[in-house]
Amino acid sequence: MFPYIALVSFSFLSVVLAQQVGTLTAETHPQLTQRSVVLDGNWRWLHSTSGSNNCYTGNTWDTSLCPDPATCSRNCALDGADYSGTYGITSSGNALTLKFVTHGPYSTNIGSRVYLLADDSHYQTFNLKNKEFTFDVDVSQLPCGLNGALYFSQMDADGGTGRFPNNKAGAKYGTGYCDSQCPHDIKFINGEANVQGWQPSPNDSNAGKGQYGSCCAEMDIWEANSVASAYTPHPCTVTTPTRCQGNDCGDGDNRYGGVCDKDGCDFNSFRMGDKNFLGPGKTVNTNSKFTVVTQFLTSDNTASGTLSEIRRLYVQNGRVIQNSKVNIPGMAATLDSITESFCSTQKTVFGDTNSFASKGGLRAMGNAFDKGMVLVLSIWDDHEAKMLWLDSNYPLDKSASAPGVARGTCATTSGEPKDVESQSPNAQVIFSNIKYGDIGSTYNN
């Protein structure tokens, strides 16, 4: 499948002039200490190169400008962004604030996704093996149904311009997104408009899905709101951002037949049996800011070794808090981190398909780090599963008392996007004080 898709992609190079760049709005990246961030291209205004007519409005393409991928890529340009006024993205010192609903001059924006830049045209890439990654976070204003996420994606550092010269926008304009869910809602993949087979979402006025998806390995350091959190590696069998179609995307009933592990191997303290560990007033008190430390240990304690364990700890009010222990029948009570043994046992006890192992497990996740992964920060609500997989009981066809089903205290009726957007428009997440270094070097212990 993928060699064929690659050939299709390259066959367009002679006819697609560019995934082009507009000049109607200046692009000024918000500063974050010595780096800056850039807004994902999917959120940007996409308009005709000859003027200001929208190429994409709401969840539909203008078929006169975009009758096919080549013509659309020739006719349309991504433009600069008003980060604070349109998207609710602001920075101050080492802190980045992402607001949920922003009423801009021309539209209402829901959520956002940004990437850390190394320079004006390249994302910062990280290899976390034998390292730790640390940040402060304030999730006190994130209710049920929302996700303030910090994670890593195996995106191209240049946003795809090197592999796909028809992409002229690149990292400067936030192109090249991919993740383990192989999302189909990406408007441009491999520098080409994803207009073929595009279907507007039946329940999201701002999104739709095209024929193609965009797959790559993903390391979720932090998916959370004020009620629940999880950290989750998602390996893939592909080693670069890959355009997929049909079964290779893991679409529909073929969830476990695609190239990526969509479930991942997650550590959610509530799901793993400690229901008093993280939340308002709990051991890690989400009513106030705290520090999240994630350590990536290897088999030989070197950056070239095999990734063997992902550990988590917290710091709040000057106190180091070790990660919670597992309290699930059938699992050892000493478990408190992600290892191959933890993942295998968890999948068996919870009755889940072990696609984590079949897609290469921690070794494959480590191989993705070897190539370098891009830091992503986002805030979003969930039109597919209402975020119940993070903060409530999920799946809904199983008893809440079954192992692995209860993931947080949110009601199973919570997380409906129209309710979250109308009732919590001022929700936000604040990430700050991001650090990266040797094990034990980024926090006071």
UniProtKB/TrEMBL annotation:
Residue span of region Disordered: 403-424
Alphabetical UniProt keywords: Carbohydrate metabolism, Cellulose degradation, Glycoprotein, Glycosidase, Hydrolase, Polysaccharide degradation, Signal
Superkingdom of the source species: Eukaryota
Record-annotated membrane-spanning stretches: none
EC numbers for this chain: 3.2.1.-
Signal peptide feature range: 1-18
One matching Pfam family: Glyco_hydro_7
EC top class, as a word: hydrolase
Gene Ontology process terms (BP): cellulose catabolic process
Substrates-to-products reaction catalysed: Endohydrolysis of (1->4)-beta-D-glucosidic linkages in cellulose, lichenin and cereal beta-D-glucans
One Gene Ontology MF term: cellulase activity
Family, as annotated: Belongs to the glycosyl hydrolase 7 (cellulase C) family.
Name of the protein: Glucanase
